[in-house]
Amino acid sequence: MNGHLETEEQGDQRPDQELTWSWGHRPRSALDRAKAMAPPPPPPLAASTPLLHGEFGSFPARSSRFALTLTPQALHIQRLRPKPEARPRGGLVPLAEVSGCCTLRSRSPSDAAAAYFCIYTYPQGRRGGRRRAARTFRVDGAATYEENRAEAQRWATALMCLLRGLPLPGDGEITPELLPKPPRLLLLVNPLGGRGLAWQWCKTHVLPMISEAGLSFNLIQTERQNHARELVQGLRLSEWDGIVTVSGDGLLFEVLNGFLDRPDWEEAVKTPVGILPCGSGNALAGAVNQHGGFEPALGVDLLLNCSLLLCRGGSRPLDLMSVTLASGSRCLSFLSVAWGFVSDVDIQSERFRALGSARFTLGTVLGLATLHTYRGRLSYLPATVEPTSPTPARGLPRAKSELTLAPAPAPAPPVAHSPLHRSVSDLPLPLPLPQPALTSPGSPEPLPILSLNGGGPELAGDWGGAGDAPLSPDPPLPSPPSSPKAALLSPITEGVPETLASSGLPPPTPGSPGAVSTRGPHDHLLPPLGTPLPPGWVTLEGDFVLMLAISPSHLGADLVAAPHARFDDGLVHLCWVRGGISRAALLRLFLAMERGSHFSLGCPQLGYAAARAFRLEPLTPRGVLTVDGEQVEYGPLQAQMHPGLGTLLTGPPGCPRREP
Questions:
Q1: Could you confirm whether 16 is annotated as catalytic?
Q2: Ranges for all domains in the chain classified under CATH 3.40.50.10330
Q3: Confidence tier at 301 by pLDDT (50, 70, 90)
Q4: How does pLDDT run across 327-371, given as a tens digit for each residue?
Q5: Phi/psi at 433 (5° precision)
Q6: What confidence score (pLDDT) does residue 6 get?
Q7: In a designed cystine with 3, which of 94, 111, 355, 621 is the match (CB 3.0 to 4.6 A)?
């Protein structure tokens, strides 16, 4: 088949027929936007209930025919011709591995009646890694293109509705009008994240996938420390449905504390945020990966998993800690407060940042060689209801004035808008386009139509509507060339920012993250630092090797510090290790933490408590304190957990990996 596939004529398009997905119509406030992020629950259908069934041709091999059956959890593909398959290989495509779908048409006069739809998938290989695959099917059962196009759109719409958790109508009328307009996401990329590969990974993996999913996005590269914090202070947040950081945990820390610097911080902090891991630690991404039901992963595999979850939509409330430092400054924490061994390794391994996540391994070895103990006082307000968890294999000891709990690991499981394609950076950034690329109505400039497989048809997206339809690359997707044709993002010139671009705070001193603020939620559980604590608090004093206050489950992408923790459980999970532990025992704890089984070791120096608030008073004159991996001033600090203060883009929970 030597024809060509192209976009439909603009005159035949309707704005409400964009074959893209959305979290719903853009609400008026950030709180409403946050509530709209979670897709409505799907209808109660059995996993194997057939929703659609049909027989289609293939592309580019026109001689093959396939039978397709769509169920709520998977697409079943069986070859009918030239030789039927009794047990088709690769014939089961779980929806958890699908990023998106689009419809296509042919430019060849001899193939004018046929319509096409293409499904983009990221299956796992035998060795566990994901690789992009795309399947294009030819709809030719009717005599006219209009009828075949309607059938292709029916399949594409049904598949996209399932991916987004949108209910399908019971009468069988599946039309593109079921899909709302796409969300608008702001991507913030730290090009120096991890081993300095964040920008390359973003071009190679993130942008192609979210384009296939139909996401509308703008992208900004951060240029310096605290750049993201400054950007979000001046953003008109009503224009965005979410802000996604493409880096490690540090960039999200900047974004959240940029919200805190705004006069409208109470509204701003509800803006949905997401993370695509391209850093060293990637702790929050590890928790998102587990929440999505994927196996533990690192590197590019973790990035692809989190990108798939982002493409599917959905969010959860995110607990945030307000941390008050010795000087009275405050910051928001989504991850952890650390003192002792963990913070020492985190900061001292900065010099090995070029190693990526391996920096922590090397830092741990060096930290064990020079193991220190720190004298201090830890006080906390116990949670009224402890988190449900099984009894560990060996109980931890009860000491005077202290109750040590040992949880066992849980099983792994209408608003006016400025135009898109803008950047709030002073420097317009080139956005390399995946190759081959499709024509996208509303793009700033036409995208090249490239021949596939050396002589096959050329494909172009049938978006079914004009406007801000995003890109949708067609298979196969090679690595981006060194100097691809680029669409430039122009600077923002419309509108007045909601706040001043500057927080009015003094510039950060060297070695300080500068992420402190005087605004924030009221800490009603905490008296001022330096004053006595109210009744009901538990106080521990002595020599500690480490103290960790963590909110989500993960301390790193492969370290499950609080296996039973949830994003919105309203708890700060306190873990500490007393002095007197041997280097070998401490190493065993961290090795077991990779599986979340460290509480089952029965280590007498290991302690745990679930709390609503805590106070840490170091009694050693020197040490390192970190908040979300960022070093802060050394001295007494206290923090209170604020349940559901933020919103996290997580994707759906427990994505199934196989369908029975």
A1: no
A2: 184-322
A3: very high
A4: 999 999 999 999 998 888 877 766 666 565 565 667 677 767 678
A5: -100, 140
A6: 44
A7: 111
Q: Is the pLDDT of residue 193 over 50?
A: yes
Please report, for residues 80, 98, 186, 202, 628, the alpha-carbon distance to residue 245 in angstroms, rounded to integers and kept in the order given. Answer: 45, 22, 8, 11, 15
> What's the CA gap between 74 and 659, in Å, rounded?
7
* pLDDT band at 520; cut points 50, 70, 90: confident
The CATH 2.30.29.30 domain(s) of the chain lie at: 52-178
What one-character DSSP code corresponds to residue 124?
B
User: What are the φ/ψ torsions at residue 368 (nearest 5 degrees)?
Assistant: -65, -35
Cα–Cα distance measured from residue 337 to residue 65, given in angstroms and rounded to the nearest whole number: 58
- CA angle, 436 as apex, 471 and 302 as ends, to 5°? 70
Q: What is the DSSP string of 530-585?
A: TSPPPTT-EEEEEEEEEEEEESSSEEETTEESSTT--TTS--EEEEEEETT--HHH
Residues paired with 609 in a beta bridge: 574
The residue among 107 and 426 whose pLDDT is bigger is: 107
Is the pLDDT at 8 greater than 80, yes or no?
A: no
The matching CATH number, chosen from 3.30.479.30, 1.10.1760.20, 3.40.50.10330, 3.20.20.70, for 184-322 is 3.40.50.10330
Q: Is residue 407 a contact partner of residue 389, using CB atoms and an 8 Å limit? A: yes
Mean pLDDT of 542-550: 95
Q: Rounded to an integer, what distance in angstroms lies between the CA atom of residue 544 and that of residue 340? A: 7
CATH class name, domain 336-384+520-642:
mainly beta
The pLDDT tens digits for 388-442 are 443 343 333 333 333 333 333 343 443 333 333 334 333 333 333 333 332 233 3
CATH of segment(s) 52-178: 2.30.29.30
Give burial (CB, 10 Å; 0-12/13-18/19+) of 228.
buried
Give start-end residues of each CATH 2.60.200.40 domain in the chain: 336-384+520-642
Separation between Cα atoms, residue 316 and residue 458, nearest integer Å? 41
User: Which of 249, 346, 558, 569 is the catalytic position?
Assistant: 249
State pLDDT tens for residues 245-278: 999 899 999 999 999 999 999 999 999 999 999 8
Contact between residue 288 and residue 227 where contact means Cβ atoms under 8 Å apart: no
CA nearest 480: which of 442, 422, 440, 437? Answer: 437
